[in-house]
Every structure is written in structure tokens, then in C-alpha cells.
Design a protein that fits this description.
The structure holds 2 protein chains of 2 kinds.
Chain A (H helix, E strand, L loop, with lengths): L31 E7 L4 E12 L4 E9 L7 E10 L15 H8 L20 H5 L2 E12 L15 E7 L5 E6 L7 E7 L12
Antiparallel strand pairs in A: 1-2, 1-8, 2-3, 3-4, 4-5, 5-6, 6-7, 7-8
Chain B lengths: L6 H30 L4 H25 L12 H7 L4 H15 L3 H9 L2 H10 L5 H15 L3 H9 L2 H11 L3 H24 L4 H9 L4 H13 L2 H16 L4 H6 L1 H14 L3 H16 L1 H10 L3 H14 L12 H19 L3 H14 L6 H15 L3 H10 L2 H8 L11 H28 L4 H12 L10 H11 L7 H17 L3 H5 L1 H4 L2 H11 L4 H14 L7 H18 L4 H12 L7 H7 L4 H10 L4 H15 L3 H5 L5 H12 L4 H14 L3 H8 L2 H13 L2 H16 L5 H10 L2 H8 L5 H14 L3
Classes of the chains: A mainly beta, B mainly alpha.
Chain lengths: 205, 777
């Protein structure tokens, strides 16, 4: 394998899979992110892999691995689906036990949201402005365990909640806040894109 | 002349049995003499054997001699046919009327008259110039009655020239009653054969033979004339004939010859008429005409009649929104709406209008209600399938606003048991039962379109049960129906069960376009095992292969838990498809692309392909398909995947075939922009390996061409080239200074200068790094 003197963030958007995603975002099928989730007491290592993005329908999905959450299961992997905030999905979640206040509280933790803070609940809110933002706002919801989707309960762990996520388009850095009704508040997720210099593609038929 | 009812059969029926009787009498006589004059035990045994053989022969004789249905009847109609030979027209007429009375609803009697030779005599009578109109009318009516007896009867009528004779009378006669009889006869012939065609595929030749007789501009013009001046019955029958002829792709040209006139007459007729059966027939004919692309386009473009047709059809839809209080046929208003909506769907396929499409979607969804006639539900489901294809907005509208899934679910419900004493209920039950397989096929086709694009719709239909704790016990209704549909192919010769299988595969294809459902719903429904078995059984069945390959293609992505099973199952077949270039090459290439797309560091799936297609063979393939846009794009993508993170593939290319492919695809041969992007991706992946960098730097012509693209290419191409240059400069090995010098000499700095103020941050980042790496020069 060649040795690299530095790492370059040059992975290209997958052009085989139409419609093309924006070239200037650092999120694409196959993208891997590594980082941590911090609660008040603990820090867990996290790996996220994006399986697929459908820009036309503002959907994203992938897998999330968390290490060291429970003693019995050193690594837990879940499948998540995501909504990209924009014309189709607004900042208001309207499900998963959250209301306007909780949405506002969590989104406001992101600096880039501040320009939308007072208007995001307006009827005439201009969603095209969200697309111009330097970050991509998303909601990620874990759906089931991998590889066996039939496992419902993991002792000492829960994936009932969801993440408020902001991805910096220029760098691919991700920040997120986990929210669940009965979980510890303000759990911070920070991830960095694993940079690659080549890419591959797939397409559903 | 078909084998079912030839003149030989008739001779056989009339005289053959007398020879047989004579033979049997003679045989009995000889045996009787033998029995009387027997000599010893051996001869007794011989005689007993002879008697047994004779008795058995007599026993099986009637059924063994004549296989056809016609041959089973006894020639009891001979006296009636004899009276047709009378010189007195009055006697002939009486006989015809007697025969009409006898044949009403009696298939056996119809066959009987055919066997004793009624058809040629009736044809002879109607062809006579001095034949009375009344006699001619009743003869044609009798021939119509005979036609209703089954496919064999229709064949006999055609064999004896009845069709030609009646067409000739239709063209020449001015007597309304005769014309009506002739039109009804022709309609019956067409409809009977069409009905049989659905039941038995083998009758397709007869149908085509009969349709040939309608390929006559004069005949179609005459039918159009009838539409203008005839009475309601005549118009309905003429419309049904026109619709039937138009639905035959090979014959629609003749319709086109009189197309504009026909359109005008039809629009007038629909604009003014209130008789539901006539409007139903008119809208049916219009829908069929519009759906035949050539005729439809002629109508819409040549007569610039889109608005005209649309206005009339919208008016019809509005008029029939409320059912008329008194109707001859209770379903006619629904048929009118279904046909009018079908016409509008065709117009929308040429000229899309959102508001209109939503209105049509509403009407069609309403006609899918479970209480509607099954034929109407099938027709509207088919129209909805066309309307919703590739229109996500409408799919969502139909899904949520019209609650289409609930209605589709009812398509899979067998008709409930009814009170056997109620004739109407029994008739409805029988009809629904007969249409049940076609209802299911239509439902799967509609679901295939509804779930093809939007993951949220797939989730809405499939997630609620598979995500809950009940999922182990309760599989989602759609997955249960799908599993049944995919398993229901025990009789490959049965067209209905085959159609159901094909539709199920279409539906499965849409569901399989989902990372989530590949991992959940399809596992819960045990679909993978079914598809493995079905693929193994259908390797030589092109119709099924055309539907199953895309499904398997989706099962080959990384997210499918059964990927390994399918890799083992299909790789050899798919590689063979590509090498031989068979008609599934497009889909098989996509499937191999999915198979070689790997989110992990493992290259085992890539190795499966690269061990079957050598570098030399890949070069031959790109040369062979360079003019096939779709295939060459996919070959580029496959190469991209094979090279990605696969240093062994690059190293093993001893003949430099990969470099030759890049040269040919990017410099020598004209390929599409999408293909260029894919081959550039392959070059970038190639440059991710030291060996690739070294080989690229030995080809200044290719590099010069690529650097030129930095200024002349599209945004994505420019981004690709700066990424490529970065890869070439990334490694600080011994040859690094050489590469720096080479790239500068080839004009990289000049090209990069033009990109330094790009608004694309990815280009900006790469440009900064290129400057940094070239700084030392």
C-alpha cells in the first residue's frame, strides 16, 4: 500500500447513483465517520457509516457502532435512518415525543441554527435558506440492531431516542445531540470524516 | 384451414361411421362362424380373445375416433340442413328460424348443425344476389349464434368463408337490419376469439387470422360511417370492433388511415350522448386508440386535439360522477369513468399537468374500491400504474389522500361466500372468483409503482409490523401476499399464474430497493429462499429472468444479509451474460457493480469477478461496447469498483490493459459525459495505488489530455482532475521530484491558476494542496 504524507479530504460524490448529491458536501454512500459520544460521566467510541443517501427524497441511512456501552455487549451496532432538514422535513420533528420547545432547545445548540431560531416555526419559513447554510441539519433515528433486526431489548442500552445532527459541509465534521425521553440530556456526539482518495458505487435497480 | 374442423372431418362425420358399422357387422359374422366351427382348446382361446378385442373396440370407438368437440355430436340436425337446400326461399327461411330457435343456448345443437354442414349452405344463401333481406338477416343471425359456441365453431365459420361473405354484405347492404346482423356477427367473431385467447394461448394464430380480415380500410370506413348514422346498437357493436382492431398492434395502421375522421366522429358522439352503454363503448374505443402509440400520437399531434379530447373526457367524467338513476347496465357508468380516466392518463403521458393528474388519480383511486366490479378494478389499477410511474408527488397523494394501500389490500381478498339461492350473488361471486388471479396481478403491478421511489412510502406500508414486537408472529400483509404470489408458479403453462408471478417479481423489485427492507421485511417474509429456488428453476426462462435479474441485482449490495448466497448462485451466469452480450447485459452489469461495491476492506467479491474476466477480456469488452452508451457507462463503473482499494487487481495487469482502456475511453473513442465521469473515477482509483501512479506518469499524452480537462471539463470533471493530480503528488517517494517536474511541464500550474478562485470548496482544498506539493519546483 502506498504511504501517505498527509491525509486529503478528496472523496468524491458518487456520481453513479442518481440524482447526484451536492459536490460540496462531505456525506456520500460509503462515507465513514469516527468519534465519540459524551455523557456527563462516560465517553463512548462511535463509528458511523453512511449506507445510502437519497437527495431527491432527503433521506439518509446507515449504521452506528457504539463501543463499551455495556459490559455484556462490548460493541452494539444499529441501523439508523435520517431526515435531511429542508423542503421535505422541517426543523419541527412532530414525533418521537418531542415538541417545539425541545426542538428549539436542541437545534439552538448549533451555532449555525441561530439565524433560523426565531423563524423556523413560521408558516412562511423559507426552506431554501437552510440549503444555503454551511451545515447540513439532520435527524438520525436508530431503528433496529444489526445484524439481527429481531433483537429488541439490549440489557443496559436503549435506542429509543434520536440525534439532532449538524454536518459541516466543508470538513465533514459532525456534531449531534442525543435526545430520549428517559435518557440523560445533552449527550454530545462528535464525529470526523475518514478521508479517502478513491471511491466505488452502487445503484438499486 | 385448421385441423379442428376441416372438410375431412365433416365427411368423416357424415359417412365414416357407416364404413365402421359395415366393418363391425362383417367382423361379428366371421367370429360367429368361427365360434360355430371351432376345433380344440387353442381355437377357443383365440375366439375369446377376438370377441374381447371387438367388444373393447366398440366400447372406445366413439371417443377415440374424433378428438374434437364437434365430432362428439350426433348428426341429428340433418333434416334442417336438408331443408336449406330447398329451392323455395320460404322453406329455407323457416328452416333457418327453426335452427335459430334450436340453437339458442344449446352448444351441442350448434355443434350438431356445423357437423352436418349448415355453415357452407348458409354462406351460399347469403351470397346470392336475389336473397331476401329477411332471409339474409336471419342467416347471418344464425351464423352469429353458431359462432358463440366456442373456438372450434369460429374456426369453422372462417374456414367456410363466412367472415368474408358477411364483410362483403356489410360493405354493400343498405338495409339496416342486415347491416346490424352483419356488425353483430363480426363483433361476436372477434370477441369470442379474444375471450378464448385469454384462456388458451394456442388460439393466438386463429385470432391473428381473423384480425387479418379486418385489415381493410373500406371496412373500417364503413364502421366509422355507421358511427355517424347508425342506431345505438349498431354504434356500440361498431365501436367494439374498432376498439378490438385498434388494440392489435399489427393492425392499428389501418385505423390510422381513417384516424382523423374517426377521432372527429368519436368526439362528437361522446360530446352529445347520454346513453351509458354507448358512451362506455365510445370511451373504451378512444382509450384503446390513444394507447396505441402511433395512432394516439397521430390523433394528438396531427389534429392538435389534446385539448379537445381532454375537454370531452373531463366533461364525461363530470357527467358520470353521479350514477344515473336508471341504467340498462349498472356498471356502465363506472366503465365510462374508467375509460375516460384511461384516455386522460394517455394524454398526461404526453403532456403532464399536475392539477389534471391529481383529479384523474382521485377518480381512478375511487374506482379501485372493493365494491366495484372486478373488471373495472383491474382496468383502473392498470391506468393508475401508468399514471403514478416516476411521479413521486402523485404516489404520495394516492397513498395518503386516496388511501390506496387499503384498497389494494382488498384486491387480495377472495370473494366471501354467498347464499347459493340468490342467483345474482352467485353470479357476482363466480365473476369475482374468475377475476381473482388478475386482480392480484394488477395489485402487485400497482404496488410495484407505488413503492418504487419513496422510502417513506415503503416504510409506511411495511414497517409497522416488522418493527414491532409482534413481528415474529405477524408478518406484514404485503409480505404474506408477496410470498404467496412468488410461490404460485406450479403451472408454467397457465398464463394467469405466470402473470401473477411476473407481477410479484415487479413488486419485490421495488421493495428490494431499500437498505432497510433488505435487512428486515424480506428476511421476515422468507423471500430470499424463494428467490434462490425460483432463480435455479428459471435459468432458461427469459421472461422470468428479465424480472428476477434486477431483484437479484439488489440482493447483491452489501446491505443484504443474504449477499453471499446470491454471489455463489449468479456470478458465473452473469459473467457469461456479459461475455456473450445477451439481452440482459444492462441489468447483469448493474448487478455486478452492486456486487463489487464494498463498504468493507474485503475484496473477495471483486476477486469473484476479476478471476472470471481478465484484464484483456475487459479491454475487449469496452472496445466491443464503446458505441453502446448504457453498457459503456456501466463497464466504466464496474472497472471503478474493481480497482477501488484493490492493489492486487492493478498489480496483476501485466499487459497494461487498464492503461489502454483509459486511453481508448478518454482520448480515442467518443463516449458520453456520464461514461467519462465513470472512467475518470476508475483513473482516480488507479492513481490511489503506487503502481497506478507510476504507470500514469509514463503516459504524458494521457496526462496532457486529463490536465486539459481541468479547464474545459464540467464542474464534476474539474473536481475529478484536481483529485487525480493530488493523488499523483501525494506520495513522497524517490520518483516524486520527477512527477513534480512532469506535471509542471505539462501545464498543471496554469490550469490550477484558473481554478484557484472556484466556489467549490473541494476544488479549493485540492488546489491548495497541489500548490503546496509543487512549491518546491
Amino acid at each position: 500500500m502506498p504511504c501517505f504524507d498527509d491525509e486529503m479530504n478528496l472523496c468524491l460524490e458518487d456520481s453513479f447513483k442518481p440524482p447526484h448529491g451536492p459536490l460540496d458536501s462531505n456525506i456520500y454512500p460509503g462515507a465513514c465517520y469516527k468519534g465519540q459520544q459524551k455523557s456527563q460521566k462516560n465517553t463512548y467510541n462511535i463509528e458511523v457509516k453512511i449506507d445510502d443517501i437519497n437527495w431527491a427524497h432527503s433521506n439518509v441511512c446507515g449504521s452506528l457502532r457504539i463501543r463499551g456501552l455495556t459490559e455484556k455487549n462490548p460493541m452494539i451496532e444499529t441501523f439508523f435512518t435520517g431526515e435531511i432538514i429542508g423542503k421535505k422535513y422541517s426543523f419541527l420533528t412532530r414525533k418521537w415525543d418531542v415538541d417545539f420547545t425541545k426542538d428549539q432547545l436542541h437545534w439552538s445548540k448549533f451555532e449555525e441554527f441561530k439565524c433560523f431560531k426565531n423563524t423556523f416555526n413560521d408558516d412562511d419559513f423559507d426552506h431554501s435558506k437552510v440549503q444555503e447554510s454551511p451545515v447540513l441539519f439532520m435527524r438520525w433515528k436508530e431503528q433496529f440492531c444489526l445484524p439481527d433486526h429481531r433483537i429488541k431489548d439490549i440489557e443496559g442500552a436503549s435506542y429509543e431516542g434520536f440525534y439532532y445532527v449538524a454536518l459541516t459541509k466543508e470538513t465533514g465534521d459532525i456534531r449531534g445531540y442525543y435526545y430520549a425521553k428517559d435518557s440523560e440530556p445533552d449527550q454530545l456526539l462528535t464525529l470526523q470524516l475518514e478521508k479517502k482518495n478513491s471511491s466505488s458505487a452502487f445503484q438499486f435497480l | 384451414m385448421s385441423e379442428d374442423s376441416s372438410w375431412m372431418l365433416e365427411l368423416h362425420c357424415r359417412f365414416g361411421k357407416w364404413f365402421l358399422v359395415l366393418f363391425l357387422v362383417f367382423d361379428v359374422f366371421v367370429l360367429a362362424i368361427k365360434t360355430i366351427n371351432y376345433h380344440g382348446t387353442y381355437e377357443v382361446l383365440s375366439i375369446i380373445c377376438d370377441w374381447v378385442t371387438l367388444i373393447c373396440f366398440i366400447g372406445i370407438m366413439p371417443s377415440a375416433s374424433f378428438p374434437s368437440e364437434l365430432a362428439k355430436v350426433k348428426a341429428t340436425g340433418q333434416p334442417f340442413v336438408d331443408r336449406l337446400f330447398s329451392a323455395d326461399p320460404q322453406v329455407q327461411w323457416e328452416s333457418v328460424n327453426d335452427m335459430r330457435n334450436l340453437t339458442a343456448g344449446n352448444r351441442r345443437q350448434k355443434a350438431n348443425f356445423i357437423v352436418v354442414g349448415a355453415i357452407p349452405r348458409l354462406v351460399y344463401i347469403i351470397q346470392q344476389e336475389d336473397c331476401m333481406d329477411e332471409l339474409r338477416r336471419d342467416c347471418i343471425t344464425l351464423l352469429t349464434s353458431l359462432a358463440k359456441g366456442g373456438n372450434g365453431n369460429v374456426t369453422s365459420l372462417c374456414d367456410y368463408g363466412a367472415c368474408d361473405a358477411v364483410i362483403s354484405i356489410l360493405l354493400s347492404s343498405q338495409t339496416n337490419s342486415v347491416v346490424l346482423a352483419a356488425v353483430r356477427f363480426l363483433r361476436t367473431i372477434l370477441m369470442t376469439v379474444a375471450h378464448q385467447h385469454h384462456k388458451h394461448r394456442k388460439t393466438v394464430t386463429i385470432e391473428s387470422f381473423i384480425l387479418d380480415k379486418f385489415e381493410d380500410e373500406k371496412l373500417i370506413s364503413r364502421l366509422v360511417e355507421i358511427l355517424e348514422f347508425g342506431n345505438t346498437s349498431l354504434k356500440i357493436s361498431s365501436l367494439e370492433i374498432i376498439a378490438k382492431v385498434a388494440s392489435s398492434k399489427s393492425k392499428c395502421l389501418v385505423i390510422e388511415l381513417v384516424g382523423i375522421k374517426l377521432l372527429e366522429v368519436l368526439l362528437k358522439l361522446l360530446d352529445r350522448n347520454d346513453e351509458p352503454r354507448l358512451v362506455a363503448a365510445g370511451t373504451r374505443a378512444m382509450a384503446t386508440l390513444l394507447e396505441q402509440s402511433r395512432v394516439g400520437r397521430t390523433f394528438i399531434y396531427v389534429s392538435s386535439g389534446t385539448n379537445k379530447i381532454q375537454n370531452v373526457m373531463e366533461k364525461v367524467l363530470t357527467n358520470y360522477r353521479v350514477k344515473p338513476t336508471i341504467t340498462y347496465d349498472a356498471n356502465a357508468p363506472d366503465f365510462v369513468r374508467a375509460n375516460a380516466a384511461q384516455c386522460l392518463v394517455t394524454i398526461l403521458s404526453i403532456e403532464y399537468r399536475q392539477q389534471l393528474s391529481r383529479n384523474v388519480c382521485n377518480v381512478l383511486s375511487e374506482l379501485c374500491d372493493p365494491e366495484k366490479d372486478p373488471e373495472i378494478r383491474i382496468q383502473t389499477a392498470s391506468s393508475l400504474t401508468k399514471l403514478l410511474r416516476n411521479r413521486v408527488y402523485l404516489q404520495n397523494h394516492a397513498f395518503y389522500s386516496n388511501r390506496l394501500p387499503k384498497k389494494i389490500e382488498k384486491f387480495f381478498q377472495r370473494p366471501p361466500a354467498v347464499d347459493s339461492s340468490d342467483v345474482h350473488s352467485v353470479q357476482t361471486f363466480t365473476k369475482e372468483l374468475n377475476f381473482f388471479p388478475r386482480l392480484r396481478s394488477a395489485a402487485f403491478d400497482l404496488l410495484a409503482v407505488l413503492l418504487s421511489e419513496d422510502e417513506s412510502l415503503r416504510d409506511a406500508l411495511l414497517v409497522h409490523s416488522c418493527g414491532s414486537e409482534r413481528s415474529l408472529l405477524h408478518v406484514n400483509w404485503l409480505m404474506s401476499r408477496l410470498s404467496e404470489g412468488l410461490n404460485e408458479h406450479q403451472d408454467p403453462a397457465n398464463p394467469e399464474s405466470r402473470a401473477l408471478l411476473i407481477s410479484s417479481l415487479r413488486c419485490l423489485r421495488s421493495i428490494s430497493r431499500s437498505n432497510r427492507h433488505l435487512r428486515t421485511s424480506l428476511v421476515d417474509g422468507d423471500i430470499y429462499q424463494i428467490i434462490v429456488k425460483l432463480y435455479e428453476e428459471s435459468r432458461n426462462d427469459e421472461e422470468i429472468l428479465s424480472q428476477i435479474i434486477p431483484v437479484v441485482g439488489n440482493f447483491l449490495v452489501d446491505f443484504c444479509p443474504y449477499k453471499d448466497d446470491f454471489v455463489g448462485l449468479v456470478t458465473d451466469d452473469f459473467v457469461e451474460n456479459i461475455k456473450t452480450g445477451n439481452k440482459f447485459i444492462d441489468h447483469t452489469l448493474s448487478a455486478l457493480i452492486n456486487m463489487t461495491y464494498s463498504g468493507t476492506l474485503s475484496n473477495r467479491y471483486k476477486d469473484e469477478v476479476s478471476s472470471s474476466i481478465s484484464h484483456e477480456e475487459f479491454l475487449e469488452l469496452v472496445q466491443k461496447y464503446s458505441s453502446n452508451e448504457s453498457v459503456i457507462e456501466k463497464l466504466g463503473t464496474l472497472l471503478r469498483n474493481l480497482i477501488h482499494d484493490n492493489v492486487i487487481y492493478v498489480k496483476s495487469d501485466s499487459q497494461d490493459c487498464l492503461m489502454e482502456i483509459f486511453r481508448q475511453m478518454l482520448i480515442n473513442l467518443p463516449i458520453t459525459e456520464v461514461a467519462v465521469v465513470q472512467f475518470l473515477h476508475a483513473v482516480i482509483n488507479f492513481s490511489d495505488h503506487c503502481e497506478g501512479v507510476s504507470k500514469l506518469c509514463k503516459d504524458p499524452d494521457l496526462l496532457t489530455y486529463l490536465i486539459d480537462l481541468m479547464t474545459t471539463g464540467t464542474e464534476i470533471v474539474k473536481t475529478q482532475i484536481v483529485v487525480l493530480v493530488n493523488n499523483l503528488l501525494r506520495n513522497s517517494d524517490e520518483a516524486f521530484p520527477f512527477r513534480q517536474r512532469l506535471l509542471v511541464d505539462l501545464g498543471v500550474l496554469k490550469a490550477v491558476d484558473l481554478l484557484k478562485n472556484s466556489s467549490n470548496h473541494k476544488i479549493n482544498d485540492a488546489v491548495k494542496k497541489i500548490y503546496s506539493r509543487l512549491d518546491e519546483v
